[in-house]
Amino acid sequence: MTAVPHCGDDSIRRAEAPDLDALMALERACFACDAQSRRSMAHLIGRAHGDVRVIDEGGRIVAAAVLLYRRGTRVARLYSIAVAPAARGRGLAGRLIDDAEQCARAAGCARLSAEARWSNRASRALFAACGFSETQRLADYYGHDPGRYEDGVRLVKRLLSGAGPVSP
Fold first, then answer.
1. What is the CA radius of gyration of the chain?
2. Cα–Cα distance between 147 and 167 in angstroms, integer?
3. What's the predicted TM-score (pTM) here?
4. Which residue, 33, 117, 120, 155, has most beta carbons within 10 Å?
5. d(Cα 74, Cα 106) in Å, to the nearest integer?
6. How far is CA 81 from CA 30, 39, 99, 124, 148, in A?
7. Residue 21 near residue 47 (C-beta atoms within 8 A)
């Protein structure tokens, strides 16, 4: 699977190297303990088997999603969604999920997977509304403070008919 330059919503674009500072600011605003490092985000932007997709409003990145493709499989993973606190409640996360589905289909993927914190009811409800099924509870999946963990849940959506059952 390879990244697809344009695949979904026309107002969502692929991140580029000059977006790195804005993406890091978004990461810090959204994730207290799970934020990507600068080095990791730079790698993801340039990665051949993934897409960092952004919503840019007036030159300001207000939301982003990281989509990864696995070599040798037809499964894409929606690794991360971040929406700036001031931009929440406007449907941007749903638009990013829809865009990720379109990108994954364009790359030939049969399924799209994601994870969410078990306690994040809003995220889980959004994924359910977008057609994802919860397939597995993930014990101690997310780290908090040192020594404290929280369960997660794996979410999967079949993208192509005939792709077999939705499973982890």
1. 15
2. 30
3. 0.86
4. 155
5. 11
6. 9, 18, 12, 13, 23
7. no
Own/partner pairs for 94-98, CB < 8 Å, 24+ apart?
Answer: 94/126, 94/129, 94/130, 95/9, 95/11, 95/12, 95/55, 95/63, 96/12, 96/53, 96/55, 96/63, 96/64, 96/65, 97/65, 97/126, 97/127, 97/130, 98/8, 98/9, 98/130
* Per-residue pLDDT tens digits for 85-138: 999 999 999 999 999 999 999 999 999 999 999 999 999 999 999 999 999 999
Largest CA distance in the chain: 43
Q: CB 32: neighbour CB atoms within 10 A?
A: 9
Q: Among all chains, which residue has been given the structure tokens 């934020």?
A: 35
| Closest among 61, 53, 66, 65 to 87, alpha carbons compared | 61
